[in-house]
From TrEMBL:
Residues 1-27 form the signal peptide. InterPro entries: Glyco_hydro_28 (IPR000743), PbH1 (IPR006626), Pectin_lyas_fold (IPR012334), Pectin_lyase_fold/virulence (IPR011050). It is found in: Secreted, Cell wall. SUPFAM superfamilies: Pectin lyase-like. Belongs to the glycosyl hydrolase 28 family. It comes from Urochloa decumbens. This is Polygalacturonase. GO terms for biological process: cell wall organization. Keywords: Cell wall, Cell wall biogenesis/degradation, Glycosidase, Hydrolase, Secreted, Signal. It holds the Pfam family Glyco_hydro_28. It comes from the Eukaryota.
Length: 437
């Protein structure tokens, strides 16, 4: 009964407020050309952290979507519980979502609409020229769900992405904090012209599959001045991505982790014999601490496509198990699911420049395919030492398997320069290229 009363009250408040903001008034505002701010409080949001404010958010969004240079405001000092919503365009130019308060996902997944469970929480699509910014927090509350239901998020198989953009262009995400996602924190799919700046992403180190920023089929991406601490890849770059440039500082969680965070990852690509194409990625001025991997490229056996022109520059690692890795034998399955296959995604033109710091297991592991060796791999001024000092127990020598290129400058330990020479020519491939990237 209480739930019914709350919904009815919210609906009545929204209806009264819609009368206070008739369509002609919105049109009159838009004709002035001045920025317009629409607070969700004016559309019936309770802002108590308990009542569902999704209807108020959608109502404010729809009104702002019709107004050029409009802002939807979630004001500071308030907590907004929001069930899964889709905020979509096309909208008028220069729409902004200003998050100054705290936006909360439902803490128990049983309260989510069943039809939406496998998808995402805040879903943005078909936008152009959109900005989400503010001094507030977007909190998935997945840690609360875990405490209440002993791993319910993960055992259910339904792990929503927290904030997702689909088919959106010229999007800016800046200044906000995104935390405690059940899966990916911030995802861009089939989008372009993306800017992420001064964003903090955090979740417990033992929360599996909680990628920080996930890119797929997305071009022209700039990620700067951001901090990421999560239970999986800090930045994950998947197929269809190109022209990605990042400068950021993933930061560690201090508690003991069951699954340590990963750093900057290209892949896994080519799963189930699929086509994968990634090109022109630059990751520079990056600090990675207490992670399982630092900078990594991983592909599944049997895939087709290419990874080319990847640069990791000015990377500082601290107590990272394996700072540099290429794995063309990647598989997260056991048994027959990891059977050897002859095909592989081709990897060429990978540069490691000024990668320095400490490792806890292996300084570099470059395991490339017998059918499609890695070519054009360059090591320049790579200086890595055991975290526990020289000759520390538990560390192993670097590996270069079917990896062709050259090492220049200072390379420590010496084994990191184990690249095979190909005299400037790509090694012959055992299979033809039957794909187009």
């Amino acid at each position: 009964m209480r739930s019914s009363v709350v919904v009815s009250a919210a609906f009545l408040a929204g209806a009264l407020l819609s009368l206070a903001l008739p369509a002609p008034a919105v049109a009159a505002v838009s004709s002035t050309g001045r920025p317009t701010t629409l607070s969700v409080l004016s559309f019936g949001a309770a802002a108590d952290g308990v009542t569902d404010d999704a209807e108020a958010l959608v109502a404010a969004w729809r009104a702002a979507c019709r107004v050029p240079r409009a802002t939807v405001l979630l004001p500071a000092g308030h907590r907004f519980l929001v069930s899964p919503v889709t905020l979509q365009g096309p909208c008028s130019a220069r729409l902004t979502l200003q998050v100054d308060g705290t936006v909360l996902a439902p803490p128990d997944m049983d309260s989510w609409p069943k039809s939406r469970r496998p998808l995402q929480w805040l879903n943005f699509k078909w936008l152009d020229g959109f900005t989400i910014q503010g001094a507030g927090t977007v909190d998935g509350q997945s840690t609360i769900s875990l405490q209440r239901s002993t791993g319910h998020w993960h055992s259910s198989g339904a792990k929503p992405t927290l904030v997702r953009f689909y088919s959106s262009f010229n999007v800016t995400v800046r200044n906000i904090r995104i935390s405690n996602s059940p899966q990916c924190h911030l995802k861009f799919d089939s989008s372009g012209g993306i800017k992420v700046k001064n964003v903090t992403i955090s979740s417990p180190g033992d929360s599996p599959n909680t990628d920080g920023i996930h890119l797929q089929n997305t071009r022209d991406v700039e990620i700067r001045s951001s901090s990421i601490g999560c239970g999986d890849d800090c930045v994950s770059i998947q197929t269809g991505c190109s022209n990605v440039h990042m400068k950021l500082q993933p930061w560690p969680r201090n508690q003991v982790r069951k699954q340590p965070v990963f750093g900057i990852v290209v892949g896994g690509l080519g799963k189930d014999n699929s086509l994968a194409c990634v090109s022109d990625v630059v990751a520079e001025n990056i600090n990675i601490q207490n992670a399982l991997y630092g900078v990594r490229i991983k592909t599944w056996q049997g895939g087709v496509g290419s990874v080319r022109n990847i640069t990791f520059s000015n990377v500082r690692v601290s107590n990272v198990a394996t700072p540099i890795a290429i794995d063309q034998f990647y598989c997260d399955r056991g048994g027959a699911g990891c059977a050897n296959r002859s095909g592989a995604v081709a990897i060429t033109g990978v540069a490691y420049r000024r990668v320095v710091g400490t490792y806890s297991f292996q300084p570099a592991r470059l395991a490339c395919s017998d059918a499609r060796p890695c070519t054009g791999v360059t090591m320049v001024d790579v200086r890595l030492s055991p975290a526990a000092g020289a000759g520390a127990p538990g560390t192993v020598a670097p590996l270069c398997w079917n990896t062709y290129g050259e090492a220049r400058g200072t390379v420590e330990p010496l084994g990191v320069g184990c690249l095979q020479r190909s005299n400037g020519y790509a090694m012959p491939l055992t299979q033809p290229f039957n794909y187009t990237c």
